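Hey forum,

I'm writing up a methods section and want to include a predicted complex as supplementary material. The small molecule is zinc ion. I've pasted the protein sequence and the SMILES. Can someone with a working setup run it? I'll credit the forum in the acknowledgements.
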Amino acid sequence: MKQLFNVGKLIDGTGASLQEKASVLVEDGRIVRVAAQGQIDAAGATVIDAPNQVLIPGLIDTHFHLFLLLLQPVGGAAEVTHMADEMIATKVFKAANAAKVWLQSGVTTVRDAGAGEFMAVAMKEAIRDGYTPGPRVIASGPLIAQTGGFRPGSGSHGVEVTGVDEARREARLHLKAGVDVVKIYGASTIGGGGGRLISEPGWTQFTVEEMRAIVEEAHKPGRLTSCHTGSAQSIKNAILAGVDFIDHATFMDQECIDMLLETNTPIVPTQAIAWSLEKFGEKMGFGPHIARKSAEVSAVSMECLAKAYKAGVKIAAGTDADNPHASLAKECELLVEIGMSNMEALLAATKTAAEILHRSADLGTIEAGKVADLVLLDKNPLDDIRNLTSVSRVFQSGKEIQLPLYDLSGFFEKVH
Ligand SMILES: [Zn+2]
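Reply by user p_vandermeer:
Happy to help. Structure tokens for the complex are below, copy them as they are.
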């Protein structure tokens, strides 16, 4: 099947400046040519005319949790529903809804940063095989934590090990289960999951040797590793262990920044989650201490992040969303707040994200040979990054996603 997109404006995600009146030819789900309008032979192609719209690459959320996103059902009265004591089937239906919501907001790929029972791997396969719509999933397994490191009661979202041998064994089980990114839990941060404080943010966990064993195992079959970090020491430990990218990187000091640069290790800072908990935490049923702690952490980590950005650390956009307020558009807005241009923030959610996830051959830009994950916006995000919420049509591998699955218009007005 051939499709020709004739668009008013094109931002191809390579970092090149916006092109007016461009055409993109797609064949069987792949982009085959990008050119000025009128230069491509459209014979036999379905033409998608969007003279007033902006075409961007499908967005990539480098840190998402399909199984943690708290959503109200369509037309439901509750702001959120809680996960405690849910049956597996309930969790799966909710994850399917989370997938739909993120997809319709223009996110065509997510890296699921951890779920129990390898459920993110199951979602990856279910979405890939067409059982339910959603972003393509790059999956982590449960977070591998040190014994005593993970919040009691949320065991299924993490798994605890002691020592190099157990760490190595657990990593091998993750590879067997089909995870793409083995996720290490290198520090406690705000809540330990579910909104309960288990320690002051920054409790460093695991030894470098334990983490290095996990990294060694993951790299053997060419898989990636990431590490949930908080304290400066936990970030340094993850770098020393050779982790491929750092989640959160909440409290970076100058030595962290230097080490990130020396080793060319990227970070996925996830600012939207703290922002959303600060603004909406209480309304969503978390205690006031969570909003307060989020505000404190966010103020410091935004400062650290601004320094890291200025120094040249590679940064990708990830939401860590456990609630829909922490959208990828909001994360990009916060990246602009730390100093990025609108273009750089957009690249953090497209090209850079694909690079960090080792998927640049297929994803992240609108270029010949790439998968046709495409989003049409009504407004230009280079004028105002918040225009990333003006999603009009979403195409995944060239196939249009039928919108709206959820009516998000009110939601985004409320949030932005
Ligand atoms: Zn997370």
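Some notes you might quote in the supplement: Residues 73-81, 192-198, 412-416 have pLDDT under 50 and may be disordered. The longest strand covers residues 46-57.
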